Amino acid sequence: MARPTADRAVGRIAVLGAASPAGAHVKAALADRGVAGNRVDLYGHRSGVAVLSEYDGEARLVQAAGELDAAGCAAVFVCEPGHDGNDLAAAAEAGTLIVDLTGSIPGSVLAGSASSPADRRVVAVPHAVTSLLTALLAPLQAALGLTRASAFVLRPASDFGEAGLEELREQTVHLLRFESTPTEVFGRQLAFNVIPEHLLPLGEDGSGVRIVHECRVLLGDPGLPIAVSQVLVPTFFGHAVSAQIDLARPGRDEAIAALRAAPGVTVASDPDTGTTLDAPEEPGLLVARIDAVGPSTLSVWALGSEAGVMAAGRAIAVASAAGAL
């Protein structure tokens, strides 16, 4: 039997994958939301190995995933793949809200899609790159219609958390000393290098398929031709998106006006803006350049920042709307 709704707002909150980059963002978002530390438990894959983390500045131990009683929680945030989807689905049947940031839990409904009823208890949060791309594509679709889109996304080391930032720094220092580089996070050298999508670490190697599917769902056009390519570049922060977009109706000026009016999107007025260092400090998208390369085709260069923070914020919004926080 499902627990009463009134119990959820004071119930336990589990972060499954607390030591992952997504887990770090979710913990920060929960703390910013004012969720008390005595309600939040941290879990991860490992057992028999002490993993130290923190919540809202307080040192915490990450418990083994096998110790999680998901059915006893108001909400479980799934921040890393590889966990038992059947157990989580059973907990959802008992009333627990499962918020999946990995796209790996079967039977989930995508947050923000037209088919996502408010009472669904397994909700998937779009990939961080999906949020960047839909921020660009959705206003154009609404204003002029889309017939095709192709995007090449440059992803920074920050997508892999503090460990990724530290490893890029260490790799750079080691290379300048003519020493071998640490590769625990990226699996290979990232400094002075570019890593293509099929060699991305931490389960991101297949994320392009997920991103395309999510974009189609959120745009409400399952047959829309979308191509997404990703590379990991040796920058610390700042995403960049190079997109070619075919519109149903021509109109560069109308496209710019639609993007200016879209929430979370800024259109640059300075023609010298456009490097990844110009990416916005707050979560959002900066459209640095729009060129008409055909009667109905736009070439767009856009910059994004804190994509992981955007995804975590969406996860918190899902839980809040469901009354779990």
Structure description:
There is one protein chain. By secondary structure, the chain is α/β, with parallel strands linked by helices. The chain has two domains: 5-125, NAD(P)-binding Rossmann-like Domain (Rossmann fold), CATH 3.40.50; 130-307, Dihydrodipicolinate Reductase, domain 2 (2-Layer Sandwich). Helices cover 30% and strands 27% of the residues. The protein is built from eight helices and 15 strands. The chain has helices spanning 5-8, 21-33, 85-93, 128-144, 161-176, 207-219, 252-261, 307-321; strands at 12-16, 40-44, 51-55, 58-64, 73-78, 97-100, 109-110, 122-124, 146-155, 195-196, 226-232, 239-247, 265-267, 284-294, 297-305. The chain has an eight-stranded mixed beta sheet, sandwiched between helices. Strands 10-11-9-12-15-14-13 form a seven-stranded mixed beta sheet, with helices on one face. Helix 2 links the parallel strand 1 (12-16) and strand 2 (40-44). Helix 4 (128-144) crosses helix 8 (307-321). The longest helix has 17 residues, at 128-144. The chain is globular.
